[in-house]
Design brief:
222 residues; alpha/beta; TIM Barrel; 6 helices; 9 strands
């Protein structure tokens, strides 16, 4: 297993999968990306599409993860979950990926402190709307830590969620801090409706759909 130096504790992670695909969300959408999906999540969002990552997985040395990522020969890497920051070893993983020359993003729920994440990493952070069932899990202190290299994603189930999101965006000047991404819950909120509301309100956000699902459906590892 990998160590951070002489006498240091070996670093390992609980890993669900590593795979190469196209980035389906964020401003990196469409880029060939290596996904490192860590196992485990303390949240249970109502529409979660990666529940298979809540449990199981394999314990893997950090150096093995780095080698598997490098084998794909793609510079862009996304560490995701589950909730990757639920594992303390996620932090040294992110740093090691950056040290290896990768362009790294982190997909995180927003429920865990992001302050210790390597500053070279683009933090793609969720803000849970009421329809998720996990609005109480939002760690609002994280919002002030976001900067121009980060992105805030809000998934919306209905107009009530949209109004809630619009209020938070305005009250906290979230669009002035970082890129804000609004997404509809598939099968619940029509993309047409969300697009119309954003245009109506001149909201300074990006609307996004999940590119990988449009191409491959909801297949694990895609």
């Amino acid at each position: 297993m990998t160590t951070a130096g002489p006498g240091k504790t070996p670093v390992s992670l609980r890993l669900t999968e590593i795979f190469l695909s196209l980035q389906g969300e964020s401003t990196r959408v469409g880029l060939p990306t290596v996904f490192v999906r860590l196992t485990g999540c303390p949240l249970r969002c109502r529409w979660c599409d990666t529940a298979y990552a809540f449990e199981g997985g394999e314990t893997v040395a950090l150096e093995t993860v780095l080698a598997r990522v490098a084998a794909f020969e793609v510079p862009t890497v996304c560490v995701t979950g589950g909730e990757p920051l639920a594992q303390s070893a996620c932090l040294p993983l992110l740093t090691a990926l950056c040290d290896a020359g990768h362009s790294v993003s982190l997909e995180t729920s927003g429920a865990i402190d992001i302050s210790a994440v390597d500053p070279r990493v683009s933090r793609i952070m969720d803000l849970k709307a009421p329809g998720s069932g996990e609005v109480a899990a939002n760690r609002l202190d994280n919002l002030r830590l976001l900067g121009p290299g980060d992105e805030l994603k809000i998934v919306l189930a209905d107009e009530t969620d949209y109004i809630w999101a619009r209020t938070r965006i305005d009250a906290d000047d979230l669009a002035g801090r970082c890129t804000v991404l609004l997404s509809p819950v598939a099968g619940e909120l029509s993309p047409d409706d969300l697009a119309d509301w954003i245009i109506r309100d001149r909201l300074p956000v990006r609307m996004q759909l999940q590119l990988h699902k449009l191409i491959w459906g909801n297949q694990p590892g895609r």
